[in-house]
Input
Amino acid sequence: MFIFLDESGDLGFDFSKAGTSPYFVITLLVCCDKPIQDGFRRAVKRTLKNKLNRKKKGSRIVQELKGTGTTLAVKRYFYGQLPTQGWAIYSVTLNKVRVADHLRTKAGKKKLYNFLAHFLLKKVHFPDEVQRVSLVVDRCKNTEEIKDFNQYVANQLEALLPLNTRLDIDHLASHESAGLQAVDLFCWGFARKDAMGERDWYEIYRGNVRYATVYLPPK
Output
């Protein structure tokens, strides 16, 4: 089983500062096996080749798919290239306005991020026969934060995974992983839906959403 984790927004809490997002989103893309993961790789490759780099000889080549700056038409084409089954999306949107003060500190924000990741991973069903789970995370943390995240998640997942299941956690740049590029597109869709009410892209992939919620919703 392959799980790709990405985030949208930030964990800043100075809402008077331009660019501080009101929401923070973590999204998982879960592929049940390697053939499904390979299907995502092909979909990303085809989309880059046929939609973003077509007739671009001599000009700058687009290296990866991103939610920001990718048109709805390109996103729709990408979705049409995906496997028809064997994968699912999970997402949690944090309403930052209601986060307690002690979780707005440097240490608190790290604790908050790890909690949200674990909260979402608990929603994933891990079959008894799964032999290996590969968790790939977008690389946005420093060395210390990666170590803390890996230790926390590994400890929490021990209770969820079958006894003999191997867990691997890797932190990669998005251009290194088609799965990360795909989940970035989905995560962006949740962020736009929840923060701005834009649902066009979300409505295309919503049938693949296994779980989604707003944590600490507005009162």
Summary: The chain has a mean pLDDT of 95.
